[in-house]
Amino acid sequence: MESTDPTAPHHETPTLGNPDLPPEGEGNTLADPQSTAMTGPRNPVIESQFPSQLHAPGTDISTQPMFWSSFNISPRRVQAGGWARELTRQDFHISEEIAGVNMYLQAGGIRELHWHQTAEWAVMTRGKCRVTTLSRDGRPSVEDVEEGDLWFFPAGTPHSLQGLGPDGAEFVLAFDDGDQSESNTLLLTDWFAHTPPDVLAKNFGVVQEAFADIPLHNLWIFPGDEPGDLAQDQADAGVEWGAAEPIIFRLSRSQPLHENSGGSIRIADSTNFPLSNTVAAALVTVEPGSMRELHWHPNADEWQYYLRGSARMTVFDTGPHANTTDFRPGDVGVVRKNLGHYVENTGDDVLQFLEVFRTDRYEEVSLANWLAHVPPSLVAAHLNIDEATLATFPRAAQGITPLR
User: Fold this and answer.
1) CB 378 within 8 A of CB 390
2) Residue 31, domain member (yes or no)
3) What is the pLDDT of residues 14-39, one digit of tens each?
């Protein structure tokens, strides 16, 4: 019962938001609008892309390392045949576990024969691409991939990529090391150019003059003739069907882990794509009006790549820290292991993005699923929500909230 003693301290009715003092957020400045004045230099173009940074929800508190970046602000390295742009830990400090590359190859464009000291995971986002590899036990593969397909090359796997017609190939690579750069690659032409000619001759059993015209600088990306018949290339490469472990996974055609009226989640990890033993991924589709439910991932940081639509995400950390920012196509986000978050579709179009993890298995903890498996009286004691209302909460992980 409220005290009628005029000398008793007065406390405002608590409101949803920051429970700590001093109060934060624009909601606390209604009686003092001058508190939000911004009279210095401003960039309205950038501000328009980040409404949740400039006008943060009242529930945000304090700050934390920036978890937004974008290929849209990354320098693009261009050569005849295609281009690439990257985000490594040097560019995006929070991205310790994954480095990302966005690459395009024109029809016939070749990413030269090479290999990496890290594993390479990739998903096709536009067009078609021919992929060649040699497994660790010496078995070749030649495959064509298209939008929604992915590949995985364990560290040290030699490979090449070539765009197919009519539109070439665009894809996103994820390396399982945040320091891996696309410009730090073991290239075929570099090795030839920096090996004594007599050694090359001895290795391949030909005369030294055979190497008189090899490139003295690497090719990286270069134009070429569009590949011919796939079956002929497979025969020429000595592919034996079924002999090598599959390097390709048709993610967009796979059975969803979650699916309802609000969207779907499809995963690729070592349980359904055995070769991919250091990278797990999810393709998330969220309908307008829905969201990726409140959750966290206990076994790895989450590296995100936004394919279409618009979104906002709040990341919750100890402290407490809670910050919200906005994402659009080409943007990249990182959520550190075990930090709570959601991803909400803020537009009228379908939202689609990738979640990539440096681990062999996809794992997540759903907040709703957790609370559904705690005695209701205990949850009610924490949240001051009556048990009848708690009984209407979801009883299992949904992945995506259904449309209501």
Assistant:
1) no
2) no
3) 556 666 667 788 888 888 889 999 99
Q: How many CA atoms lie within 13 A of 284 on its CB side?
A: 27
- Separation between Cα atoms, residue 180 and residue 244, nearest integer Å: 27
Q: What is the mean pLDDT of the chain?
A: 93
In a domain, 9, yes or no: no
> Which of 355, 180, 159 is CA-nearest to residue 275?
159
Distance between CA 356 and CA 226 in Å, rounded? 31
Tally of domains within the chain: 2
C-beta of residue 101 within 8 angstroms of C-beta of residue 130? no
Query: By C-alpha distance, which of 269, 264, 293, 291 is closest to 280?
Result: 269
Catalytic-labelled residue, pool 26, 355, 363, 364: 355
Identify whether residues 207 and 327 lie together within a single domain.
no
Task: Read off the pLDDT of each residue in 158-181 and give the average, rounded to a whole number.
Answer: 97
Q: What is the CA radius of gyration of the chain?
A: 26
Segment 87-146, tens digit of pLDDT: 999 999 999 999 999 999 999 999 999 999 999 999 999 999 999 999 999 999 999 999
Does residue 355 have an active-site annotation? Answer: yes
Say if residues 66 and 94 touch (Cβ distance below 8 Å). Answer: yes
Whether residue 236 is found in the same domain as residue 260? no
pLDDT in tens, 275-315: 999 999 999 999 999 999 999 999 999 999 999 999 999 99
Give which of 227, 275, 266, 245 is closest to 105, Cα–Cα.
227
CA–CA distance, 400 with 265 (Å, rounded to integer): 8
Domain that holds residue 85: 70-249
Place of tokens 């009286």: 377
- Cis peptide upstream of residue 320 (ω within 30 degrees of 0): yes
pLDDT of residue 28: 83
Among residues 97, 66, 84, the alpha carbon closest in space to that of 281 is found at: 97
Comparing CA positions, the residue from 303, 313, 306, 299 lying closest to residue 356 is: 303
Tokens of 379: 């949850």
Q: Is the pLDDT of residue 12 over 70?
A: no
Judge if 288 and 141 occupy the same domain: no
Answer yes or no: are the C-beta atoms of 381 and 351 closer than 8 Å: no
Bridge partners (DSSP) of residue 353 are 284, 306
Q: Does some domain include residue 53?
A: no
C-alpha 104/C-alpha 82 separation (Å) is 5
Residue where a domain stops, chosen among 228, 249, 270? 249
